[in-house]
Specification:
46% helix, globular, 3-stranded antiparallel β-sheet, 8 helices, Rossmann fold, binds BIS(adenosine)-5'-pentaphosphate, alpha/beta, binds magnesium ion, binds zinc ion
Length: 216
């Protein structure tokens, strides 16, 4: 196999970003994440599309899914430019999963399993670097100096959608739209399920082994 094509699935807060960042470094592959791509283009004008809101920001702050046509295009472009990749935050519904299967082949599909109570604690305590996007948690994964990124010295901020009410809505949207996607890969017999409640290091060991196994 050339560079691996990895799909990392999991609820909001399951650790997709944390683990994708490490996988990208370990295997020298691209981290393709629709969430970060949309955050970088929050005020993109969608008014020419027949959509409910006019910007990604409005969907994200409500905890709703951004329209498929927007995210499909982001993923298509990113995958065309990547040899190997780890895909994080996409597909989030069955239509996106179908689109994905038309544009690429996956080597490993990994699901990070985390309970709902733990997800809420993780998201409400998360802090992200305003400059490089690195993830921290005030309690579970604190930076060396409070409020400052270990990697680049940038400011650590709370994401707009990490308030308790929006977190609950994101979890509801996940259950309704994305759990069927997890089920779809489970039915296909390709899903590798990993306990996402272990420490970040232990989860990474399991994720890394799953990718290595897929390569053999
Ligand atoms: P997105 O940015 O993808 O958010 P998400 O799926 O809700 O996931 P998160 O990024 O919140 O969690 P994560 O799994 O990456 O966890 P992390 O590693 O940070 O999407 C945001 C929005 O964009 C969506 O709501 C939607 O509006 C839109 N969007 C994106 N993709 C879309 C798509 N395909 N279609 C339509 N709309 C789309 O970890 C969380 C916290 O836990 C951190 O603080 C971390 O330090 C900590 N942590 C991680 N691992 C552990 C561990 N093992 N133990 C303890 N703490 C841990
Ligand atoms: Mg993320
Ligand atoms: Zn940083």
């Amino acid at each position: 196999m050339s560079q691996p094509h990895v799909l990392l699935l999991g609820a909001p807060g399951a650790g997709k970003g944390t683990q994708s960042e490490r996988l990208a470094e370990a295997f020298d592959i691209e981290h393709v994440t629709t969430g970060d791509a949309l955050r970088a283009n929050k005020d993109m004008d969608l008014s020419h599309m027949d959509t409910e809101y006019d910007t990604p920001r409005a969907y994200m702050e409500a905890g709703e899914l951004v329209p498929d046509e927007v995210v499909n295009e982001i993923v298509k472009t990113a995958l065309e430019e990547a040899d190997g990749y780890v895909l994080d935050g996409y597909p989030r519904n069955l239509d996106q999963a179908e689109y994905l299967s038309d544009i690429t082949d996956l080597d490993a599909v990994i699901f990070l399993d985390v309970s709902e109570d733990e997800l809420v604690d993780r998201l409400t305590g998360r802090r992200v670097c305003d400059d490089c996007g690195a993830n921290y948690h005030v309690e579970f994964n604190p930076p060396e100096t409070e409020g400052v990124c270990d990697k680049c010295g940038g400011d650590l901020i709370q994401r707009d959608d990490d308030t308790e009410d929006t977190v609950r809505e994101r979890l509801r949207v996940y259950e309704e739209n994305t759990e069927p996607v997890v089920e779809h890969y489970r039915d296909e017999g390709v899903l590798v399920e990993i306990d996402g409640e272990d420490t970040p290091d232990d989860v990474f060991d399991a994720v890394k082994s799953a990718v290595e196994d897929a390569a053999n």
